[in-house]
Amino acid sequence: MRALEDQRRQQSQHVVAGGGDQDACAVPGLAHGGGRAFDLDAAHQPTPAQLDHTRVGGGEIVQRFLSKYRIRHTGGLDRPSAKAAREELGVEGVVLTTLETYKPGPPPRVALTMRLVSAGEEPSIEWIDGFARSGDDAPGLLALGVIQDLKVLEREAFTRVASSLAAFLERKGERAPPCARGRRYRPAVAFRASSLRPDQEYTVAVVPFVNRTARRGAGELVSLAFVRQLASTPNLHPVEPGVVREVLLSHRIIMEGGISLEATRVLLGALDADLVLAGELLDYDDSGIPKVNFAATMLDRGSGEVVWQSISHNQGDDGVFFFDLGQVSTAQRLTCRMVANAVAGMTGRASARVSDIPHGR
Known about the structure:
This protein is an alpha/beta fold. It is built from seven helices and 13 strands. β11 and β12 form a beta hairpin. α4 crosses α7.
């Protein structure tokens, strides 16, 4: 299935662009990952013209749909909602955006993750990408490259992810562009069982990390970072987080101290997944130099045994000695790089690779 779609209207209204045999998708709006809310009516989001082969639907139509089915959580797509979206709205997919950081600064900071989820009986992630940047990431000569205006950074964020989605829809871009990696972001401790084979296909259910920090929603942000990196790995297929949330709620599974073996069996059985990934977030500080500390564990469906485990703790100035060169300025970018290295170790591809991915990843 060639899923499709992207962002919404130009100002306060959503629009439907194109027609005929074009694919269609809906954009329900932004989910706030514990970050600061902002005025959607003033958002400089990309227009449907950026996606020539897709009809983008939103506005009153989508709002009526959300109200009819009493959908308040727009950070994921469960199976009943995905089926209803396909049948009632006639869309092929739904774009979900999680706003992770939106701070005026100085310097301003914006971070978000966007994904395209197929509509139908079994929603699946068709494409996922993210953006995270601070206004002073690339100051340049005499600080001429510093961005002071939050709206400028916001426009760059939505334009960047819209371009990524457009490239994917045109079969010119990746399904899940990976984050940059590097030796300094490798896990402090890592274990991988020999039974976890890099040449075998696995379906992975990622549950929200237990959040031990003061940052509201930070555990879900780290789990979403794992979803993104797993999606970029050919043999690992993450379950749509909205479906995982649906099962957790329907079975009343609460993970205050982490996921139990019994809860793992229930999850894997209900989701028909091979592996479940859970974890604990111990530190997530994005107030200055970012600091992130998490532990992650993966359990096997058949044996119930731990097949992979990793502990990572880093801060944005690790390995930085001169003029802040190479410093990571946002917790989201730091998390993404840490998770990219953790997942590389999961698949046996732990050799260091420093990417030339531009600012924002």
